[in-house]
Amino acid sequence: MVGDKRGRAACVDKNAQEINRNKLVVLYVDGKDDISNNLFIGEPLGVIYGYEVKGINPETGQSSWYYKVYDDKGEWTGEMETTEVYADSEKMWIGKEALPDFTGGLNTTFQWKGIDLTIATAFQIGGWAYDSSFLGEMGYSFYVGHHREMWNTWNPETKSGKYAIWNANNGSNSYGQTSDVHLIKASYFSLRNITLGYSLPKAWMNKLNIGGIRVFVTGDNVALFSKRQGFDPRVSLSGANGSFGGYSPMRVVSGGINLTF
Questions:
Q1: What are the residue ranges spanned by the domains of the chain?
Q2: Higher confidence at residue 1 or residue 140?
Q3: What is the pTM of this model?
Q4: Contact of 153 with 175, CB cutoff 8 Å
Q5: What residues contact residue 27 under an 8 Å CB cut-off, 6+ apart?
Q6: Fewest CB atoms less than 10 Å from the CB: which of 94, 108, 128, 161?
Q7: Contact, 85 vs 96, CB < 8 A?
Q8: Hey, CA dihedral for 127, 133, 134, 138, is it positive or negative?
């Protein structure tokens, strides 16, 4: 804390950080990888196992998914090929993790001439999440509302697009299929709480024979900054933004008076 003889002060009173490092050593029962739950021996928790896209065919706009090449004994040769038929592709570990590399937060308090301001923040660096809500808004059905990013799907006239072709007549091979394309960086910064208060001067309180009066206003879940507007990485640690319903904590603003006798 820093201050002067007049009682003015500013202080950064709390901070916390956490670095995440982990590795799955053993799985009981049969000692083998549990693919259905994304648990792989020797790998970190939260590794993502799914379909991986190589890119977009510039002539057709179709996604190209990877699949493994096996020999006559059914063993993987270490090579991979691509296909534009989603049913022929194959799930695999794609080298990304849901858990963040670093998490932390800062709590800061300022005081000056009876005014106090407290700010609490939280942040996360690293990790990936599957934005299923965004994907739902990019679905190939005509009967639902769509995200404005739909305009950035592959255009057969310009032969270009940020995303693969949107094709309602070929939904099984359309952009909306589950793949690593829909993974998004889960880093974020949030303003968890801001509280502003004012304590009336002591001279006034002495005249009223009151210990003190403080008025304040506070806001919880004030703001969130993430990779995509509307996407909240905080709702899950598993990499799926629907784990807790996909809804962010509600923003709440309130005020009050503290009276001390």
A1: 2-20+99-138+176-260
A2: 140
A3: 0.75
A4: yes
A5: 33, 34, 39, 41
A6: 108
A7: no
A8: positive
Both tokens assigned to 65: 């998914």
Amino acid at position 5, single letter: K
DSSP class per residue in 65-128: EEEEEE-TTS-EEEEEEEES-GGG---EEEEEESS-SEEEEEEEEEEETTEEEEEEEEEEES-E
CA distance from start to end of the chain: 28
Per-residue pLDDT tens over the stretch 128-178: 888 777 777 776 666 667 778 888 888 888 888 888 887 777 767 777 778
R_g of the chain, CA atoms, integer Å: 26
**Residue 163 and residue 61: Cα distance in Å, rounded?**
8
Q: Which helix (H) or strand (E) covers residue 219, if one does? A: strand 212-226
Buried b (16+ CB within 10 A) or exposed e, 185-204: bbbbebbbbbbbbebeeeee
User: What whole-number distance in Å separates Cα of residue 100 and Cα of residue 106?
Assistant: 18
**CB contact set of 111 (below 8 Å; sequence gap of 6+):** 8, 9, 10, 11, 117
Please report, to the nearest 10 degrees, the dihedral formed by the alpha carbons of residues 135, 137, 139, 143 taken in order: 160
C-alpha span between 11 and 82 (Å, rounded) = 57
Model pLDDT, residue 237: 59
CA distance 106 to 12: 8
Q: Which residues are within 8 A (CB) of 194 and not within 5 positions of it... i.e. 6 or more apart?
A: 117, 118, 119, 120, 218, 219, 222
pLDDT of residue 16: 58
Q: How many angstroms separate the Cα of 257 from the Cα of each of 108, 119, 188, 260?
A: 22, 19, 33, 10
